[in-house]
Structures
1.
Amino acid sequence: MRRIFLFSAMAFAPLAVAGPAAPLAKPAKLGQCVACHGEDGRSRVAGTPHLAGQDETYLVNALGAYRNGKRQAQPMNSLANTLQPRDIAALAKWYAAQGSASAARGKTPGAAKAQGASR
C-alpha cells in the first residue's frame, strides 16, 4: 500500500509544481484572420465558421488544403497562399487554444436571425 502511495505522489508531483502554462503569443499572421473569424475565433460574420476550440490538427489540415487548392473557397485560398507552414501551425494552435465558441456564445452567427425568420 505504501508503494502505491509513493508512486502516486511521485507521478502527480510535477503537475502540482508546474503551475499554469505561459500565455500563448499571438501569431504574426493573426491579423489576416481577424476580420472574418475574430481574434478569439468567434466569428461575427454570418456564414463564417467559428474557429475557437477546433481541433488543432483539423485546422492545420484545413488551412493546408486551402493553401494547396484541394479545398476551394475565396478568399481563403488567397489568404492561405500567403501562409508558411509555421504560420499555419501557429494559427491552428492559437485558435484551438481559444476554447469552444458554442460554449462561450451559445449560437452561431445569424442563428437568432434565422430563428426569427422561421417563426
2.
Amino acid sequence: MELAYIPSPSRGVYELGPIPLRAYAFCIIIGVVVAVWLGSKRWVARGGAKHTVGDIAVWAVPFGLVGGRLYHVITDNQLYFGEGRDPVDALKIWEGGLGIWGAIALGAVGAWIGARRRGVPLPAYADAIAPGIALAQACGRWGNWFNQELYGRSTDLPWGLEIDKVESDGTRIVGVFHPTFLYESLWCVGVALLVIWADRRFNLGHGRAFAVYVAAYSVGRFWIEGMRIDEAHHFLGLRLNEWTAILTFVAAVVYLVVVGKLRPGREAPDSIDPAAKADPSPEAGPSTDADADAGADADAAKDPSSDADELTVSQPESAKSDRTPSVPPAGQPADPVRPEPGTKA
C-alpha cells in the first residue's frame, strides 16, 4: 500500500497580472502581524499603551530582516561567492534564507532604538513580545515548505515530505524527506504556549520570559538542525547552527537564573510605558488608585446637585419655620393678612 505523504506545493510564486506574489514573503508578513497582535495584548495587560508594540516593531522588523539575511549570507557564503556564483543572489531575500539568530540579534538592536525613543525598558518589551516571536517563526517556516527547502533526511514515515524540484545547477531532487519545517513550526507553537504559561505561573519580568523563549527554542532547534541535510559548515562534528543553539541556550539559562535572583518579580505597571499615563483609555492598561481618586474629584466638581444638597441639609431649622404658615389655636380667629407696603388692600 502506498503511503499518503505530505505533498509539496508545485510553486511558490503566484502571478497577479505583472505582480509576483511570493508565498515565502506572505508567511513572513503573517508572522509579523501575529507577533504584533499578541505582543500588543500582552503589553497592555502589563500596563502599557495600546500602540507601543507596533511603534517599536516599525524599528525591530526591518532590522530583524536585515540581520537574518546577513547571518544567512555570512554563514552560508559559499552559496553566493566563489566560482560560478553570483553575489547579487545574496540580495534575493524572497528566494529564502533568513537566519533566526541574526534576526533576533539585529532585531533587538532595532527594538532597543524604538524602545529608547518611547522611553520603554527593553527587557519589559521583550517579555511581552516573546511568545509572539515564537508564533511568527511558526508561520515563517511554512515559507520553506512553499520553496521546498531546508528539509531533513530521507524517511518512509507517513508524514514524510515529498520533494520534487530542480536545483539551480540543473540537479533534480525527488524523494520523501523529514518535514523539518513542520517540526520546527509545531515546536515554536509549543514554545509560545510554554512562555505564556511560565509567565503567568512565575510572574516573570525583567527579560526572563524572553530568556525562557530563547532557551526553549534553542533546545528544539538543536535536534531539528541535526536532521537537516542542506549544506552547512561543521565544527567538531556539529553543524554551525547546532553550536549556536548550544551557546544561546546556556546564555539564556544563565540570564534566567542571575536576573531571577537579582530582580525577582515583574516591573511595576506604571513604570514600563510613559505613553500609558497620557492615554486614560481602558486599552492603555490598568488604572491606579490615584487615577480613580482624581476621577471621583472631577465627577464631584461637574455635578452641581451635590452642592445644592449640602446647602439644603445645612439650612437652619429657624429659616424653615419662617416660611411655614402658622396655624392659630382652636377658637381663635386667624390674623388678618397685612398687605405689602405700596399695595391696595
3.
Amino acid sequence: MGIVFAIKFVDRNTEIADLNGMIFIVTGISLFFVMLFILPEQLVILHCKFTLRALLLMIEVI
C-alpha cells in the first residue's frame, strides 16, 4: 500500500513521463532499503549458527 503512495508522490513531483520507468526506479530504491534491513539480520543468524556449531564441536557433542 505504501508503494502506491510513493509512486503517486514521485509522479506528481517529477517530470518523468514514463510510468514503467518510474515504477522501475521506485522499486529499485525500495529494494535497496529493504535489503539494508534484511541482510544484517541474516548475517547475524548465520554468525550465530557457526558460533553454536563451533561451540558444540569444542565440547564434542556432535
